[in-house]
Fold these 4 entries.
Entry 1:
Amino acid sequence: MTHEPPPTATDLTSPQPADWNADHYRSRHAFVFESSADLAGSWLQPRAGEHILDLGCGTGELTASIAASGAAVVGVDASAEMVAGARTAHRDVTFEVLNAHALPYHAEFDAVFSNAALHWMKPLDPVFAQVADALKPGGRLVLEMGGAGNVQTVIDAVDHATRTLGLPDVPHPWTFPSTAQLATLLEAANLRVERTHWFERPTVLQGEDGFRAWLEGFGAAWLAPLGAEQRAAVLTEAEAYARPRLWNGQEWVADYRRLRAVAVKP
Ligand code: BEZ
């Protein structure tokens, strides 16, 4: 994940954040794991002796918190930079560089956990098929990702900027499913959906430059088709569009919308 950029496990078949820097990610994007601590706790409910896969582990903070329960955890991420940062920070936990579209696991895990990573892994149907294959019968998938409407104002800001500047549209690289779309994807992978929860989580982007820093980091792959000068112009125009919508006079607050689910392999 995460970069000045980004987040977590990305998939090698998806556009990659250009500059995943583990230290920067941990210091500037700590909200990614801090705000999902309960996902790894009361949602996952890891138990000692369980074998758990953390898919898109980023810098490994939640992986380590799951390991503290006594479960045997493997954290995987497509970013070698993130995995290197995770290994340095959490020496007792196992981390591997792996593509979520090519997981080598078959009926090995009691649970697969994923936080803030799946929206980078388009298309999701083969990923959920791999997850189902990795789970033991009765095993569970516990996930949080961007849900429908996630960071919509940021997306609108970039769309507005490219249109205003007469530039080609640049489609964002993420997938933010609705509850119904996610349930359909999970059921198609033969996972039984037990629980879903879509909710708004306004998220502070630290600093006066928080909007720009977020876009430069997480949006690096998104804006990569533009030249350097076009990118700079888009950042300026998008920030001007976003300011009356996301700047509250003291800080930037992005319109994060989350989607959580628990699904079980029958
Ligand atoms: C998210 O966690 O919702 C997210 C993070 C970076 C880019 C897009 C979405």
Entry 2:
Amino acid sequence: MKPKMHSVAPNATQVRQRVLSGMRPTGALHLGHYHGALKNWVRLQSEYDCFYFVADWHALTTHYEDREVVEKNVYDMVIDWLAAGLDPELATIFIQSRLPEHAELFTLLSMGTPLGWLERVPTYKDQIEKLKDRDLATYGFLGYPLLQAADILIYRAGFVPVGEDQSSHVELTREVARRFNHLYGRESNFDVLAQAVLKKMSKSDAKAFEVARKSFQQDGLETALGQARALIAGCEAFGAADRERLEGYLRGTGKAILHEPQALHTEVRKLPGLDGAKMSKSYGNAIAMREEPAEVERKIKRMPTDPQRVRRTDAGDPTRCPVWQFHQVYSKADTQAWVMQGCTTAGIGCLECKQPVIDAIKKEQEPWRERAEPYLSNPKQVHWIVEVGTERARTVARETMRDVRAAMGLTY
Ligand code: ATP
Ligand code: MG
């Protein structure tokens, strides 16, 4: 075990909130994936109990006709993750399709989820528009945000790191959880059970709790909610299940079987591709995380620059040049100033200007290549990491499904 595990206080791991995120194995990861998502994943792994999964079923929602793509990229993507610095001792890494529990929860949730909720997800119409060459008028594609909801809810994740465009998916997940708890969280004897829990409190505290609960439920008084919660928190006789039941009793929501997650907004920038548009493998403008250095050099050298700077002696305008966008990500202030000055006065040529970007990207890639090396030469190690992660995830998923089945009356 690595020393950093020991620096975590014994019970700190228990209270660490869970973060869940996934990526679709549809190709080699590129610099955009690193700057837009992975870098953040690496940062989160030491603060949260992170669950990161290979979303192979999600890949099939758009790539159902090309199974080789998904098949080829599953373990390769995990190698990219490890190369970026994910530590399998800190984060749980697993493959979605190895856990049929996701599909079971998806099916059960689908029964009560209104179609309109899915049709209204903004990315639904966008993507259908964007990916016109694929037939996405499928049941699976419409349902994928619900599958995502199942992925999140099954691990009772507290946080989901998302970019702006994905917020609506977390919102849908919250609605689905709320609806589920509302439909199935109210056991017929819920209030009786809650009052039995209250008996573990001192008489005066229990009385104060009831007063606060009524004033919250009748008048919506937030201060009363706070008082009641403080009483729950202060009672040492309660276990986790007691606290949860009283929280549901207090808010009038019943038992929370599925937990509402929150979106974890982090500032990530959109990385442009070689042509200035967003870097994406489908646009053919990407540099892979583990692209060969010679290839990086070739790609950058061929990048278009300010179209109006035709001759070396013409002054250029960086704001019209995609290389400048790379400088904004990769170069320090002094280099940026050198570019700005040199370009606008025709003091430097475009190839000269590109060199610091080439150097910076190659340097960024070095540790990735180094970390990937042992995994590439020993793929069994990667399989083992995924194996361990999958079993860890399964323990949690099974527990949730037990509660879900019981709540829905599926325990005969
Ligand atoms: P691609 O867009 O290359 O085809 P993909 O569609 O399989 O890849 P996405 O789902 O678009 O993958 O991206 C996975 C994650 O990486 C998302 O969190 C997304 O925001 C991030 N990401 C992808 N491309 C970029 C980029 N150019 N800049 C910043 N973040 C990006
Ligand atoms: Mg994309």
Entry 3:
Amino acid sequence: MTWWRDAVVYQIYPRSFNDANGDGIGDLNGIRRQLPYLSWLGIDAIWLSPVFPSPMRDFGYDVANYVEIDPVFGTLRDFDDLVSEAHDLGLRVLLDWIPNHTSSDHPWFVDAHASRESDRRDWYVWRDAKPDGSLPNNWIRAWSDESVWTWDDTTGQYYLHCFLPSQPDLNWANVDVRAAMHETLRFWLDRGVDGFRMDVVHLIGKELNADDPEELRGLSHTPLNDVAVTHEYLREIRAVLDEYSGDRLSVGEVYLLDPERLGAYYGHQDELHLCFNFASMFTGWRADAWLELITRTEHAMTAVSAWPSWVLSNHDNARVATRLGGDQARARAALVLLLTLRGTPFLYAGEELGLEDALISPDQVVDPGGRDGCRAPLPWTRGSDHGWAVEPWLPFAVDAAVRSVESQRSDERSTLHLTKNLLELRHDRDALRKGDLEATHVEGDLLVFDRVVDGERIRVVVNFSRVDCPFIVDGTIVLSSAGEANPGVIRASEALVIELRTT
Ligand code: NOJ
């Protein structure tokens, strides 16, 4: 039973979702309180960005203990309650698993760092300087033009960190590291989680002796991101998930922007179940650009019998409504795309509201990667506190009152209701969940595709232009992103979902 092929996954950034204990930071009990909202909306699963103990230098992506809950988010008991209440509502729960690196505060690194003779020295990646005194290789860490290597004075070697110096990379070549990380998966699987989003999982295998080609320096696109041994490690990880019943899911953050390169990470149905297809976040709002992305994705995925996934926003990138210049009509059309393309959609909390990023002044920046804007707290109510008992850890997004859940819930024409309607439609129509993708093409600025299953054919038409276009519908319009369709015309930035007559 591959539930995740049919599912819509909702990403929660826990710090910014809902605050139950009134400290200005969202928490597990805050999420519990909003489970009825998520159930009303109609999503199928939630993925929680990290909730593990962490010094929060990368806001939880620097894990100091893989098998506990950070007190800022609650307790293991709260987590167990969250899982059981979610399950009671038919919602699955995915955790974020961070296999590539730990925090430098993790006891494993504290031990490894203490001496060259430490038991866990080899759990991380240590190297001498080259004979000429230079760095072990030319790799550059994220968010800077600095090296991935930091010199450790205590033990006289460099250690590797693809992200912050306080996020040392684990040495996956060490079988004890692999076994220990597998145990962290089992810990949560035993507690009933339905799977994991796996952070930069394509980085766990490394060819340390190779320099990055000069023109490809940095983390994205380098061949060093994408090495053969990673697939062995992924097969082992998959085997751990397969020890459990219930079809536990792995979705990999494989940060390679070519859909063609993602296929390998599914293996022969023995590696990841799904990979994020991040190219969609960097595709301009043009019919031809989306046609190319969709066509390439379909080819790449069908070539290896893999199931696609789609995403428009997350906690690392400007939200889609912001990328579209705050144009709500376009943001609504983008939601139609996300929720009607073939594959599992990932909806970032707030996207159902058409939320934009917050404007962050230089003194409000807290993230080392400068990603604060897209992490703004969710506005629950219209009033100025937006349902947060104290001022939250980041400012609210632009237009938070108008975009709040409260404002939109009472307005049938809102983006929130559009999202709910789309989710209902997906739920009701096999074609939208399971159907093949056919007849994908552009007509001028219109992108057109069909979803087809067992005599059911649903056509999606998106007008990427800012002008109305004449359009004759050969079927029944079941949804318009503009609220009501206009006969004979597809409006500027409108997306239509049409049930076609089949013979
Ligand atoms: C990707 C995560 O999405 C991002 O937030 C984090 O900073 C890096 N991986 C490092 O873990």
Entry 4:
Amino acid sequence: MHLPEYQPDQRRLYLSPSILAADFWNLSDAVTAVQADADALHIDVMDGIFVPSISYGFPIIEALKRHHYPLPLDVHLMIEDASRYIRTFAEAGADMLTVHAEACVHLQRTLAEIRACGMAAAVCLNPATPLHVLEEVLPYIDMVLIMSVNPGFGGQTFLDTTLEKITRLRQWLDRTPYPIHIEVDGGITTANIAQVCEAGADVVVAGSAVFGSGQPAESLRKMRARCER
Ligand code: DX5
Ligand code: ZN
């Protein structure tokens, strides 16, 4: 189960709350609280090498699937050499798999493997990585994930320079035949989500602003309302 294919003339907002900011003691309550107002669940996998932190991996994805969690699992790999694990993530239950361009030597092959395993394929770019690294892989991707903070931690401040990068990417993609979503991740709140959507993002990740708010469902509804105005 993926997000519907990107449709330029019927753009809508998909919200993908990140469980990195959830209370792990009550993880099932946290994911249940967002399921009616979110479109996907964002799962940040960190290896302590590509990024400084170590987060979580297969067992969380497997548990969500075992308990029939109804939303697509949007898995963001912040790991070196992701190609070693593509099949294992598919078997665990990932629906959308994002790899970092900076961490994949054979990026095209990795993306093709992700699709061959039945998942939606996405490439993520760090704030300092230019858009042109995507040029040769556009036919192989369903989504681009633009980092609006340097990856590794939740709760960081949104980098405003990202807005112009999103605008440029949307304009470029619109001139290609490929239906590619733009996801944005890091520092997104009810205060800046409208700008992120106006710039051209249609999939938005938020961790602290959702799970740190004490009212996750309400925060998602507010975010959606800000973009639909
Ligand atoms: C950062 C992660 C993000 C993070 C977002 O490395 O990729 O998905 O959970 O958290 P906030 O929304 O708090 O910036
Ligand atoms: Zn993420």
